[in-house]
């Protein structure tokens, strides 16, 4: 009987979910003979919790190809209900718009939703969720759909709820620097609003032109300024969220200090929409500092990059606002595939490139400080070559090299993306070992936020190929786990890594997450559980 334990546990969990909850399940290292899992081992499978007419809960499993017939299909009555609730504009059934919403930014994950809903306020979000819950309609929350791990698109035909029409800035307090806004605000719009007010967002990332702040918060997006301003767990002072059953949770505080009980907002930051839909956010923003300086440097070895980071922290201190790196393969790729990009340090290609940004309030001092740092780094042999941006255009051309990498990779062909946190001293060992592991079949391209230990390991190949994938995984996850890294530094788990959580979280931690979610939220989030044999059963809430 031992061998049925994983499946039994799955069954036990299923009775805990609200009827209509759709889950994705992957069973790893488990006996293939159980009827439940025999056909679906090693694949994420949709898993539905249903309520029978007698009120008894049961589960039903479909393969990745077949949709579970027990799960409700959108009916004309549902459409009428949503049109009455949201108006024509809020109910999108147009094929082109749906295709865009069903497909992730990389074109790698694709759902088949027939319905996209666009609520205009929290009450509408609440009504939608209450209705979908009662009708057994699966939903998937979506922001700007810029995610890289398949977390923002439907797995099958879930109703997509996009809060993009909820884009009002509700208040801004100059003295405290607290901005309160709706979840659908585009990050770049918030950045320019704050710029006019003399403030900045503590968050900046390449996808700023289309990502939404609700999605940023739900995925705990890291980005380029984390080194200076910390993670969103520090900057987000409050939020409002709607649970799967329609309950609105008002946690929209604007206070820096509030020690009254558990700080529940933190559960929503980074929970990838699994606990509910974030509808409003209050965020602490720092004042804009007048002097921004950027240097683009080259190092010949990874040890020098690490030493340079330490020196930068010591010599530039509080004004250091970014420390990004790319290796020579990343540089070659960006030069080849992005129009108008040129190497600021011609003519030769160096092994590593570092972008250092300082942000301060004393223009003369800050510039001289960075110049002196650069000079000293060249003299001491840490830096092979370097250049300081002379104007804003040159500064943005430096940033373009780093921020343009995801786009350059897309242009180069197929790409396998890994977003890892690793101890700094080990980080580049993985890249080198991966090169040996992969051989000539693909290019291993490394870049990332060196200042906060976040490596973006990208494997670029002419086309997707299972043989290449088999060389990458589970090697990359095992390596990361062995070195006590995280398999998701800032992109989240999504569909890509929901089943891999055990590489970064202990069985006890994962089990606590699940038990907690059941007790408090009466649902299961995008997470995993372990059976008693330490096989992994991963469950990922889509509704
Ligand atoms: O392309 C990637 O792997 C990382 C994307 C993004 O997080 C970045 O830092 O540019
Ligand atoms: Zn990043």
Automatic annotation (TrEMBL):
The keyword Oxidoreductase applies. Transmembrane segments: none annotated. Residues 109-288 form the FAD-binding PCMH-type domain. Keywords: FAD, Flavoprotein, Oxidoreductase. The keyword Flavoprotein applies. InterPro entries: FAD-bd_oxidored_4_C, FAD-bd_PCMH, FAD-bd_PCMH-like_sf, FAD-bd_PCMH_sub1, FAD-bd_PCMH_sub2, FAD-linked_Oxase-like_C, FAD-oxidored/transferase_4, Oxid_FAD_bind_N. Gene3D superfamilies: 3.30.465.10, 3.30.70.2190, 3.30.70.2740, Uridine Diphospho-n-acetylenolpyruvylglucosamine Reductase, domain 2. Its cofactor is FAD. It comes from the Eukaryota. This is D-2-hydroxyglutarate dehydrogenase, mitochondrial isoform X5.
């Amino acid at each position: 009987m031992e061998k049925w334990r994983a499946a039994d546990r799955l069954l036990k969990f299923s009775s805990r979910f609200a009827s209509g909850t759709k889950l994705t399940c992957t069973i790893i290292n488990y006996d293939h003979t159980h009827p439940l899992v025999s056909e679906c081992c090693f694949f994420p499978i949709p898993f539905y919790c249903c309520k029978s007419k007698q009120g008894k809960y049961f589960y039903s499993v479909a393969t990745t190809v077949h949709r579970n017939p027990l799960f409700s299909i959108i009916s004309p009555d549902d459409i009428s209900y949503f049109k009455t609730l949201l108006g024509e504009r809020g109910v999108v059934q147009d094929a082109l718009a749906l295709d865009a919403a069903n497909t992730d930014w990389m074109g790698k994950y694709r759902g088949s939703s027939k319905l996209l809903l666009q609520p205009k306020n929290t009450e509408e979000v609440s009504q939608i969720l209450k209705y979908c819950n009662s009708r057994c309609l699966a939903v998937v929350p979506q922001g700007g759909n810029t995610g890289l791990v398949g977390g923002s698109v439907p797995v099958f035909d879930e109703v997509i709820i996009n809060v993009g029409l909820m884009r009002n800035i509700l208040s801004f307090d100059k003295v405290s620097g607290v901005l309160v806004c709706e979840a659908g605000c585009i990050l770049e719009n918030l950045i320019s609003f704050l710029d006019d007010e003399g403030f900045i967002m503590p968050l900046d990332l390449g996808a700023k032109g289309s990502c939404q702040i609700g999605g940023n918060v739900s995925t705990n997006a890291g980005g380029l300024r984390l080194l200076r301003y910390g993670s969103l767990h520090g900057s987000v002072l409050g939020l409002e969220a709607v649970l799967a059953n329609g309950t609105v949770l008002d946690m929209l505080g604007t206070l820096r200090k509030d020690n009254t009980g558990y700080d529940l907002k933190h559960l929503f930051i980074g929970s990838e929409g699994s606990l509910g839909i974030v509808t409003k956010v209050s965020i602490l923003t720092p004042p804009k500092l007048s002097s921004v300086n950027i240097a683009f440097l080259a190092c010949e070895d990874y040890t020098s990059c690490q030493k340079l980071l330490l020196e930068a922290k010591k010599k530039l201190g509080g004004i250091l606002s970014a420390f990004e790196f790319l290796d020579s393969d990343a540089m070659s790729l960006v030069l080849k595939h992005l129009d108008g990009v040129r190497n600021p340090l011609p003519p030769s290609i160096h092994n590593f490139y570092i972008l250092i940004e300082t942000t301060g309030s004393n223009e003369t001092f800050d510039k001289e400080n960075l110049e002196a740092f650069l000079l000293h780094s060249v003299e001491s042999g840490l830096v092979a070559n370097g250049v300081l941006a002379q104007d804003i255009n040159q500064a943005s051309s430096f940033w373009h090299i780093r921020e343009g990498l995801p786009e350059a990779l897309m242009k180069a062909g197929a790409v396998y993306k890994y977003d890892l946190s690793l101890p700094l001293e080990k980080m580049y060992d993985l890249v080198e070992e991966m090169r040996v592991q992969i051989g000539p079949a693909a290019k291993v391209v490394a870049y990332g936020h060196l200042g906060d230990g976040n490596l973006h390991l990208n494997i670029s190949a002419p086309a997707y190929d299972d043989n290449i994938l088999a060389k990458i995984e589970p090697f990359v996850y095992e390596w990361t786990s062995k070195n006590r890294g995280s398999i998701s530094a800032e992109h989240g788990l999504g569909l890509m890594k929901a089943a891999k959580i055990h590489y970064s979280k202990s069985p006890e931690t994962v089990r606590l997450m699940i038990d907690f979610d059941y007790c408090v939220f009466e649902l299961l989030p995008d997470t995993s559980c372990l059976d008693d044999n330490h096989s992994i059963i991963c469950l990922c809430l889509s509704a």
